[in-house]
Amino acid sequence: MSSKPLDKMNGRTIRINRVPATITAILLTIVLVYFLNYHKDERPAIYGMLRSDNKVNLRKMLIAAIQAAQRGGLEVLDVAHSRQLKERSKGKTAEGVNDPFTDADGRSHCVMKQGLQRIFPRVHIFSEEDKEQCKDAHSFDLDPTVLHETAIVPDVAVTAQDVTIWIDPLDATKEFTEELYEYVTTMVCVAVAGRPVIGVIHNPFSGQTAWAWVGHSMSEYLDELHKQPRLQSDQPVITVSRSHAAAVKDVARNVFGEQVSLLTAAGAGYKVLQVVANNATAYLHSSIIKKWDICAGEAILRALGGAMTTLDDEPINYGPNDSPVNTGGLLASLEQHEEYMERISKYRSAHNGKLR
């Protein structure tokens, strides 16, 4: 076996065997190549030192968003089954309704946000419960099996600074405390340059996950929802919030007429899915609403050819430097959006810009 002298000390020749050193170098190279190809998002600190393009992969973001919503849902389920809600009030909403917080909100928030932050530390992430301190560290590894086999999910790279993730760890907390679980969802949205492109709405109690990536693919569950029979009615059916139904009902009747049908429900995610499932023709909200409540729903509607705008027919921006509060109300629909906005505009013009 060949060897090479390296140095002499006190008249002695020091030799090192080259074979083990060569094998070690080859093994390290293989590990490094594998690491860069398959774990660049999961190990961003090291990868960032080796690459400077500052990109993130939207396919991996979709997988992570689905996993985050589902893992948050498991925390919600666990608290619901224990009935140890540890409920407290965050204060009153703009409509004067109690805004509760439970242990499920906090636990879901920590699992969802920390898990996403570990994988995508260069991306802006906003959660409804950002004020909560997470005592334990939470993480998960990407699992592509959350996608169905026929999903078209290409690798698409975007600049990390252009991406914003919006998390709602528990939508419809009030209804959660009342055990009205059909309204409860966990939601994740990915926005690029302020526009929502990936939306995930997960119901922990049914186990169903609706997700969509605009221009690419959607979950089988969402596709099945959208194929349900359309409403057989000449009048629109408007879904509105049960937490402040009186005010928004007045707006709906003012705009669409006294014969309009109203579907009262809770949770922005749930109401968007009622539009998707053709149980409602539009979702109307007349007051302020937080962007983590609506971003995932807008992404899903956009993927299906629908729209969500303010009541001034302005797009809602989900960039990192924008306010997390949408103050312009909203109208969400799959069809006839322009017609409905025209009705709103005409009513406002005839009533000095007011809807009530």
UniProtKB/TrEMBL annotation:
EC class: hydrolase
Any Pfam family matching the protein: Inositol_P
Pathway entry: Polyol metabolism; myo-inositol biosynthesis; myo-inositol from D-glucose 6-phosphate: step 2/2
Membrane topology note: Single-pass membrane protein
Gene Ontology BP term (one): phosphatidylinositol phosphate biosynthetic process
Subcellular localization, as worded in the UniProt entry: Membrane
TM segment ranges: 21-39
Catalytic activity: a myo-inositol phosphate + H2O = myo-inositol + phosphate
CDD domains: IPPase
Keyword Hydrolase: yes
Molecular functions (GO terms): 3'-nucleotidase activity; inositol monophosphate phosphatase activity; metal ion binding
Binding site for Mg(2+): 128, 168, 170-171, 293
Name of this protein: Putative inositol monophosphatase 3
Native organism: Drosophila hydei (Fruit fly)
